[in-house]
Amino acid sequence: MENIAHIQGLTALAVGIVFGMGGLGTAIGFGILGGRFLEGVARQPELAPLLLGRMFIVAALVDAVAFIGIGFALFFTFANPFVPAAMQAAAGGG
């Protein structure tokens, strides 16, 4: 049972790291994206509607990467595949 608590504790730590890195990466991505959008509009204001549409598409892709990471982190939080294997090993099932 001590091994299961250890696995769950390390899983919680890993999930926290995934959430933090996902948020940090998304924030950096949106910062770069917004800055480049403003630079592009400042250089060619007539392309603002086209650039805005493309900016939203790229913003969705940047967000999607973070959401996929969050999905994996939540999977390991609530359906950790390592806990049943540790319980089986603790019970002597090999």
Q: What features would you describe in this structure?
A:
The protein is mainly α and 94 residues long. The chain has a single domain (2-80), classed as F1F0 ATP synthase subunit C (F1FO ATP Synthase, Up-down Bundle). It is built from three helices and no strands. The chain has helices at 2-43, 48-78, 82-90. Helix 1 runs antiparallel to helix 2 (48-78) and helix 1 packs antiparallel against helix 3 (82-90).
The H/E string reads HHH
Q: Please tell me the CATH architecture by its name.
A: Up-down Bundle
Distance between the termini: 15 Å
Percent of sequence in beta strands: under 5%
Number of strands: 0
State the CATH class.
Mainly Alpha
Alpha-beta content class: mainly alpha
The CATH superfamily label reads: F1F0 ATP synthase subunit C
> How many helices?
3
Q: What's the rounded overall pLDDT mean? A: 90
CATH topology descriptor: F1FO ATP Synthase
Brief descriptors of the model:
mainly alpha; 3 helices; 94 residues; F1FO ATP Synthase
Blueprint (SSEs and pairs):
Blueprint: H1 2-43, H2 48-78, H3 82-90
Helix pairs in contact: 1-2, 1-3
Summarize the structure.
With 94 residues, the protein is mainly alpha-helical. Helices cover 87% and strands 0% of the residues. It has a single domain, classed as F1F0 ATP synthase subunit C (F1FO ATP Synthase, Up-down Bundle).
